[in-house]
UniProtKB/TrEMBL annotation:
NCBIfam families: flagell_flgL. Keywords: Bacterial flagellum, Cell projection, Cilium, Flagellum. It comes from Paenibacillus yonginensis. InterPro entries: Flagell_FlgL, Flagellin, Flagellin_C, Flagellin_N. This is Flagellar hook protein. Belongs to the bacterial flagellin family. Residues 211-294 form the Flagellin C-terminal domain. PANTHER family: FLAGELLAR HOOK-ASSOCIATED PROTEIN 3 (PTHR42792:SF1), FLAGELLIN (PTHR42792).
Length: 295
């Protein structure tokens, strides 16, 4: 087949376009760090990349839930410490009040402090996290206790959970009655109310009876406190697991979608060399005339 000058020029231009396209792809990959800029680059790889991106987005949400759960439980842990301090102070004051050397006036003074301790316990029971009440089950927009009638206020029994994986949900909330005692029974608020009444009436037997009830409230609090600690540990374990899963998923995504920088740079340099050689060759061909062929 006779090769004409026009055919040579067309082939040269075609080769130059191919080299330029390859260089553009390489430059885009180096700029973005991604091997796939459009589905046609790697149809199969795009499918894997989308799946990995979806998995990472879901795991980010699970991690956020886990951190939120840990923060809520950490807040509860602090509140339980405060409640424990209140009960310890109430017990100390009660022991003083049953002392036979204390008179009626001194017991009435202690009653004033017990009233303040009871108000502090109500405040703890109405504590919030990000504007949501912690001890009213699923009714997180309503305060569970009133100052005037906390002993008889009934909290919501619902429990809300946070998803930390596709198959695992961890309970976060604890009902007020679990922590402070059942409404209408010997809950911590009634115990403190009864203690105030006994102190104001100088009822030594009633004051003494309050000691056992304070201890019962403390035991009930400790059980809830231990439950919070166990849940915090579970959230920590799940966070570690999510982090491990994310590392594995990111590694698999990188294999599919991320550019191997050393290889991409080497290929780009190779294409630049080829381009220079093609341009040099094309320049020499274009300089040839009819006289060059006749010599």
């Amino acid at each position: 087949m006779r090769v004409t000058g026009n055919m040579q020029n067309m082939q040269l231009l075609k080769n130059l376009r191919n080299i330029n396209n390859s260089m553009n792809v390489g430059q885009n990959q180096l700029a973005t760090g991604e091997k796939i800029s459009k589905p046609s680059d790697d149809p199969i790889g795009v499918g894997y990349q989308m799946r990995y991106d979806t998995d990472l987005a879901r795991s980010d949400q699970f991690m956020e839930n886990s951190k939120t759960g840990s923060n809520i439980l950490s807040t509860m842990d602090s509140l339980f410490q405060q409640a424990d301090d209140v009960l310890k102070r109430a017990r100390t004051l009660t022991l003083q009040a049953v002392n036979g050397t204390y008179d009626e006036n001194q017991r009435q003074v202690i009653a004033k402090e017990i009233e303040q301790l009871k108000e502090q316990m109500v405040t703890i029971g109405n504590s919030t996290f990000n504007g949501r009440y912690l001890f009213n089950g699923q009714k997180t927009d309503q305060a569970p206790y009133s100052s005037a009638n906390a002993a008889n206020d009934q909290t919501d029994q619902g429990v809300f959970y946070l998803n930390v994986s596709a198959a695992v949900s961890v309970p976060v909330s604890i009902t007020g009655e679990t922590v402070f005692g059942e409404a209408g029974g010997d809950n911590v608020f009634k115990t403190l109310d009864d203690l105030v009444a006994a102190l104001n009436s100088n009822d030594v037997d009633g004051i003494s009876a309050s000691l056992d009830k304070i201890d019962q409230s403390a035991d009930r609090l400790m059980l809830s406190w231990a439950e919070v600690g166990a849940r915090m540990n579970r959230f920590e374990i799940m966070q570690s697991r999510i982090e491990d899963d994310q590392v594995n998923t990111k590694s698999m995504r990188a294999d599919v979608a991320d550019v191997d920088m050393p290889s991409a740079i080497t290929e780009l340099k190779t294409n630049e060399t080829v381009l220079q050689a093609a341009l040099s060759t094309g320049a020499r061909i274009s300089q040839m005339s009819l006289l060059d062929f006749l010599r």
